[in-house]
Amino acid sequence: MDRKVFKLPFTRVAIQDWQCPTCQKGLLRIKEGTFFSEETSLSKKAHDHEAWDPDWISSVYSCLLECSNNSCKETVSNIGKGFVDWDIEHDEHGYPEQVYGDFFKPLFFHPHLKLISVPENTPDEVKKKLNDSFQLFFSSPSAASNHVRAAIESLLNNLNVNRYRVSNGKRRLINLHQRIDLLPAKYAELKDLLIAVKWLGNAGSHSGKELTADDVMDAYEIMEHILSEIYENKSTKLKALAKKVNKAKGPKS
Ligand SMILES: [Zn+2]
């Protein structure tokens, strides 16, 4: 996963290479004539302040993005916020100079971007929780991380790990950590990974501190590996491995 694509702001001349969520082949580009941005009213009022600087400016924007793949051409709506910061431009002699430039950060995409690849055989309930997470990724990393934790609960349900235990004749919920421990031996290698995602999800729900985009991307990358281990077609993986060995005409390394 190229994290910069989801973390860095974009400018009117250089937008990030977001992959089309529908065909997952083309890249999204701003559809001509659809980009609008305006300074917020509070930001406009602040111009009167004696210490005002252009980097005080904040704005909102909206635009339509279009997939570059001609056989898809999906349209994605996008909104977010803008700000002003130093940018580098080249003068007529080719020397770099610092100028103020407009930068934009997305808050929502609809349909949402797909931040990791999810194997086709993944249970629908797990896919749904991950999609809920991708939807919230740009606007609320903590909420997004919470949904990855929920995806693990669904994953354990799908692997038939008990949700309840009976004690003194009463049915009690088993907590997530204990459920992970109940996984059958063949998933032993995945336990540490699942527990890591659980910790990140816990931080998203309970601590007062907002998680960062990087925290959520940690959870996504671990989740991508877990799902690939459980649901990816093993023969596809072996074929890819054989191809590498054959190409090297010997061991891969
Ligand atoms: Zn597309």
Describe the protein's topology:
Layout: H1 3-7, E1 28-30, E2 36-39, H2 41-45, E3 58-67, E4 75-90, E5 96-110, H3 124-136, H4 141-158, E6 164-167, E7 170-173, H5 176-181, H6 191-206, H7 213-231, H8 234-248
Bound molecules: zinc ion.
Zinc ion binds next to loops.
Main features:
253 residues, Four Helix Bundle (Hemerythrin (Met), subunit A), 5-stranded antiparallel beta sheet, 7 strands, alpha+beta, two-stranded antiparallel ribbon, 22% strand, binds zinc ion
User: How far is it from the N-terminal to the C-terminal residue, by CA?
Assistant: 23 Å
Shape by Cα distribution:
globular
* Assembly state of the chains shown: single chain
In what range is the share of β-strand residues?
Answer: 15-25%
What is the correct CATH architecture of the largest domain? Up-down Bundle
CATH topology tier name of the largest domain: Four Helix Bundle (Hemerythrin (Met), subunit A)
Total individual domains: 2
SSE pattern: HEEHEEEHHEEHHHH
- Proportion in helices: 25-40%
**What is the CATH class of the largest domain?**
Mainly Alpha
* Low confidence ranges: none
Bound molecules: zinc ion
Describe the structure.
This protein has 253 residues and is of the alpha+beta class. It folds into 2 domains: 1-114, no CATH class; 116-233, Up-down Bundle (Four Helix Bundle (Hemerythrin (Met), subunit A)), CATH 1.20.120. Helix content is 38%, strand content 22%. The protein contains 8 helices and 7 strands, in the order H-E-E-H-E-E-E-H-H-E-E-H-H-H-H. It has helices spanning 3-7, 41-45, 124-136, 141-158, 176-181, 191-206, 213-231, 234-248; strands spanning 28-30, 36-39, 58-67, 75-90, 96-110, 164-167, 170-173. Strands 1, 2, 3, 4 and 5 form a 5-stranded antiparallel β-sheet that branches. Strand 6 (164-167) and strand 7 (170-173) form a beta hairpin. Helix 3 (124-136) runs antiparallel to helix 4, helix 4 (141-158) runs parallel beside helix 7 and helix 6 (191-206) packs antiparallel against helix 7 (213-231). The longest helix is centred in the last third of the chain and has 19 residues, at 213-231. The relative contact order is 0.11. The mean pLDDT is 92. Zinc ion is lined by residues 20, 22-23, 26, 67, 69, 72, 74.
